[in-house]
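hi! just following up on the protien thing from before. the input was this:
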Amino acid sequence: MNKYKKLQELSKHIFSTKNVILSEIKGKKNLILDVGCNEGFFGKHDTEKSNIYYGLDIDFESLEEAKKYYKEVDFYNLNDLKELKFGNIKFDYILFADVLEHIINPKETIEFFCNKYLKENGKIIISLPNIANWQTRFGLLFGNFDYTDIGILDNTHLKLYTYKSSRKLINDSGLDLKKELFGATFFGYIIKILPFTRNLLSTNIITVSQKK
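and the predicted 3d structure came back as:
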C-alpha cells in the first residue's frame, strides 16, 4: 500500500462521522442514549467499556444486533414521540447520528428528548448530511439533483442541511452550540489543515450542544 492510500485509510478512520462522534464522548460511566442506533456501532466500538448504552431504532433486525452491545434497546418511531420504556433515566449524552434528516419534525424531536431525558449538564451530539458538499454543488452546476439509495441525497431524507441551517436548528431547539465539527472520510486531513474548506468538502455536519 503506497503512502497516499495509507493516508486515505487513516483519514477514513479518524475523520469518519461515527468516529468523530465517539471521540466527543468524554469520561467514564456515562449513560448514553443512541437515538437511531441501527446495529449498535457506538456501543460496539467505544473503547471506554464503563459507558452504558441504550438504543432506539425502527428496524427490528438491527435492534437484535444492537442488543449485543447495549444494556437495553427498544423499537421506536421518531415521528410518534412517546415516553421511553427505559424508565425515568437521565442521560449524559444523547446521540442523533444521521437520523434527524429522516423524520418529519427534527426540532420537536430534539426538544422532546432534551427536556425529558438529558441531564442538566448533559450533551446532545448530532450529525447531519452537508447538502453544500462539493458533489451536490457539482451536480447542480449541470442541472442534476438526483436522489440515490445512500449518501447525502439518500431518497429517505426529508430534510437537507448546511452548516448555517444546522446552527438554526440547534438554536431553535433551545440548545447552546458548544462545538461544530465535520465528518469527511476522504478529505479529512485537508479540512484539518485548511478549515475554510469545511463547508465544501465535509460530508457531514457534527454539532455538540447543551441546554441553555
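The two ends are 48 Å apart (CA to CA).
The chain has a mean pLDDT of 90.
cheers
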